[in-house]
Amino acid sequence: MKLEEPVTGGPCWTELGTSDLESAERFYTELFGWRPETDPRQEAGGYTVAHLGDAAVAALAPLYQESQPVAWNVSFAVRDADAAVAAVRSAGGTVVLEPMDVFDLGRFAVVLDPGGAAFQLWRARSFPGAGLFNAPGTLGWVELLTRAPERARSFYTAVFGWSVSTGENYTRWGVEGADFGGMITMDDKFPPEVPSHWLPYFAVEDVDDTALITTQAGGSLLMEPTTVPEGPRIAVLRDHQGAVFGVRAAETEG
Fold first, then answer.
1. Ranges for the VOC domain (predicted)?
2. N or C: which end of the chain has fewer CB within 10 A?
3. What is the pTM (predicted TM-score) of this model?
């Protein structure tokens, strides 16, 4: 990911909705070396921010509704959450949760694109989002898996103004040309019950070691470690509670 910090229109945060917060903390601390800190306020509902050093890098949160799946969610930064929700509706998306304030931290909403992929909108106030990208244990890429790629392309460019780079087998999203993610078309290899979704990829020092640790901790592999042609080494994993996420080799300088 070419972004080094949250910028308007780009991914700024990722959080796990989990059915067992303590178990998830143990799993991801072992996997990424995170230091979790739970917000003590009762109104926060157990929301837990994971840190690497002093940087907030992701969050773990209890499920707040019975219909909410155990899954990773991706948030995108916006200047105005209410205006962004209006843009989502205008472009054919659906609003799941209307904009609401989160203490003095910011204002957020939950929406669906026309293909049904959920994501979050974040208008920062005191909390801009992740304090570190691309380092081991932090967000390094986001990917949309969808059965409606043309509708998705039109939707996201209308809502966020993303730049689009289309290759032979892969579409890349960017903010003013700075790539931060991509899009894959879901074909017959994906079971019909798997919905369109956004998938966060975390940067790691060694993809193969991370995959091994995942299985040893009770998780599983959905895509074995593989090296993308002219790209990084990646794997797609499922944690011990069923949440899916990706890992990719952290880029080294020099």
1. 10-124, 138-250
2. C
3. 0.95
